[in-house]
């Protein structure tokens, strides 16, 4: 259960000093420094980050020397925290609320947020920006007054951060923070891809290409949706035994398996998730393979989930012991060990490494 104690009102409206892990150069180890976090402006919320986990998207952008790589920067976007203070025009959350920041917005006002057809806010669109979503400015400075750039509208590798209220979801404080943070991005993306984007039906067959944290999230979502067969496709056979925990029934190693060209005609969906290591990567296929087979290829951000309505459902399903979040956490470390988390993930030695911020 989350500890939601805080010093109510004492720091509201004032700059805060805290520790943060800063990336000062592309691909170089993060450094722990004292930073200044400004108070929230209108539509903004300052939160005390309890836990943050490391996602491959952080690593992908951290390696980039050119835009959208920007330095110095505070990375991190899978997190959970407690509301420390709120800016003007914020009535959705109050001080002390237990909240999950999400990289996509859910403003609740635009036509897309009001529609069941999309989870992508047209008022505050998804982009890899170094700023806050409503204005090109930062809420972070170092002790020398230098601006520190944001990441994914969250920047959770700081003990305090400022997030737009459209990017925050209030959740049940019964869920432990070292589990709640997983629902802020990767695991939710995987579960949502099966549940919402693919709309997996009971008895379906699901093939998952790549069995990392998101792929296992897809397996979990497929299992919850009643899939009869969940096929893991990966070049590391050792992942099969672990994948069984999440409902994986079959394993295919494309480097050793025999070619099988049998496909269903007129139905079937391919859901594309995540972020390519190369941002200019392209998908290539023969148009006739799509036209004559009736296939669907669909991109999905955050698994097509609407954060403010769908994430609380996932939280409840975990508390009801339906979703297996515990097995996604392979390591837990302190903030000053954050570079170890980067090493473990890049070496393929962990699923999710949870970073305790305090």
TrEMBL record:
Signal peptide: none
A GO molecular-function annotation: S-(hydroxymethyl)glutathione dehydrogenase [NAD(P)+] activity
GO biological process per UniProt: formaldehyde catabolic process
Required cofactor names: Zn(2+)
Alcohol dehydrogenase-like N-terminal domain ranges (all copies): 42-171
Annotated Alcohol dehydrogenase-like C-terminal domain residues: 213-261
Superkingdom field: Eukaryota
Pfam families per the UniProt record, alphabetical: ADH_N, ADH_zinc_N
UniProt keyword list: Metal-binding, NAD, Oxidoreductase, Zinc
GO CC annotations on file: cytosol
Assembly with partners or alone: Homodimer.
Family (UniProt): Belongs to the zinc-containing alcohol dehydrogenase family. Class-III subfamily.
This protein's name: Alcohol dehydrogenase
Organism: Chenopodium quinoa
Lineage, broadest ranks: Eukaryota, Viridiplantae, Streptophyta, Embryophyta, Tracheophyta
């Amino acid at each position: 259960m989350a500890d939601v104690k805080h010093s109510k009102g004492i720091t509201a409206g004032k700059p805060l000093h805290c520790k943060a892990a800063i990336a000062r150069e592309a691909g170089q180890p993060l450094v722990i420094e004292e930073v200044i976090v400004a108070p929230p402006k209108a539509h903004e919320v300052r939160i005390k980050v309890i836990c943050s986990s490391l996602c491959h998207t952080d690593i992908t952008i951290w390696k980039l020397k050119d835009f959208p790589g920007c330095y110095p920067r505070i990375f991190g976007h899978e997190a959970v925290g407690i509301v420390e203070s709120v800016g003007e025009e914020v009535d959705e959350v109050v001080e002390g609320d237990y909240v999950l920041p999400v990289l996509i917005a859910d403003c609740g006002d635009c036509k897309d947020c009001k529609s069941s057809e999309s989870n992508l806010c047209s008022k505050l669109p998804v982009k890899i920006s170094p700023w806050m979503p409503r204005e090109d400015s930062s809420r972070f400075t170092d002790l020398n007054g230098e601006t520190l750039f944001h990441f994914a509208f969250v920047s959770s590798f700081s003990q305090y951060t400022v997030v737009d209220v459209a990017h925050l979801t209030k959740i049940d404080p019964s869920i432990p923070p070292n589990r709640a943070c997983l629902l802020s991005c990767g695991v939710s993306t995987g579960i949502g891809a099966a549940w919402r984007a693919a709309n997996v039906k009971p008895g379906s067959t699901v093939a998952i290409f790549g069995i990392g944290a998101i792929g296992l999230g897809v397996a979990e979502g497929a299992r919850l949706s009643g899939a009869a067969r969940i096929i893991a496709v990966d070049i590391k056979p050792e992942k099969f035994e672990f994948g069984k925990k999440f409902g994986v029934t079959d394993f295919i190693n494309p480097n050793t398996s025999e070619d099988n060209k049998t496909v269903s005609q007129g139905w079937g969906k391919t859901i594309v998730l995540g972020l390519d290591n190369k941002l200019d990567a392209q998908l290539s296929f023969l148009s006739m393979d799509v036209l004559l087979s009736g296939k669907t290829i669909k991109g999905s951000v955050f698994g097509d989930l609407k954060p403010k309505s769908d994430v609380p459902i996932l939280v409840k399903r975990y508390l009801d012991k339906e979703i297996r979040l515990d097995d996604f956490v392979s390591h837990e470390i302190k903030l000053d060990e954050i570079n170890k988390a980067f090493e473990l993930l890049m070496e393929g030695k962990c699923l999710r490494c949870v970073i305790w911020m305090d």
